[in-house]
Structure formats: structure tokens, C-alpha cells
Amino acid sequence: MATAEEYAKMSAAEKKKEDWMNTKWRPMMGWSYMLTCIADFVLFPILWSMIQMIGEGKVEMQWQPITLQGAGLYHIAMGAVLGIAAFGRTQEKLNDKAGSTIPSTPAAFSPAPAAPSSFSAPSTPSSFGSGSFGSAPKPAAAMSSTGKPMPVQPDQPEL
Fold this sequence. Notes:
Blueprint: H1 4-9, H2 12-16, H3 20-56, H4 73-97
Helix pairs in contact: 3-4
């Protein structure tokens, strides 16, 4: 255990005394994803073509990227891991800068209040079965935004 004098001389990194895995896992994930993509989309196709040229004298089959097998789930998963890690790191940096006054989770979405509307609910028949069988009540003429009546639409489309 360090004394008070030794503790005062320590750097901030030494005071935290975090494991290297806690601080380096995000960059390691990014580097491993980048190396996987370079290998699967650049190196392996070139090597595949070279092996075919050496063996049979012509390239007959195209390289099928391994990471795209299974609908590219590898890329979806790595995108989620790296995206969430980047978001988490951003929140950590903001909390450190602002003295932990910013919440670590974003505020819940609240939609803007609805503007008053001049539209009303459609009218319903006053009694059950008031019209003939299969007919619907005729809607009132619609008004445009300038107050003029809009053209009446035919019941059946004209063919």
C-alpha cells in the first residue's frame, strides 16, 4: 500500500490502476474487425485466385466471403458491438468533462404536442340499419386549406 506522499506523486493512470483489457477492448474490437474485413474482402480473394491459377491454370470460381455467409450476421453483430461501444465511450467522456452532470442514458423521446385540428370524427348513422343494404353514408364535402370545397371523388374508379 502506498503512503500519502507516494500516492500524491502517482499519475492519474496509476491511481486508476485499471486493467489493460478494460481500457483497450474497444480499440482491439475495431482492429480485429478491420483485419477480418481486409482478410475476407482483399487478401483471401487474391490468394484464392492465385491458388487456382497455379493449380489449374485458370480461375474458375470466385471467392465467396466467409463473413457474408449466414446473411452477414457477423457484420451486423460487429456493427452493433462497435456502435454501442462508441456510444458508451462518448457518454463516459461527456460525464468526465461535465463532472457527471449528464445522464448516462439518453432522455426518453417525447413527441411534440399536437396542434389543434379542425377535423372531426366521421359521423355515424343515427340508427342501426338506416340505409339500404351495402350502402355507406355519403361523406360531407371536404374543404381545402384555403376554405374552398374540394372536388367530389366518384364512388367507383372510372376505368
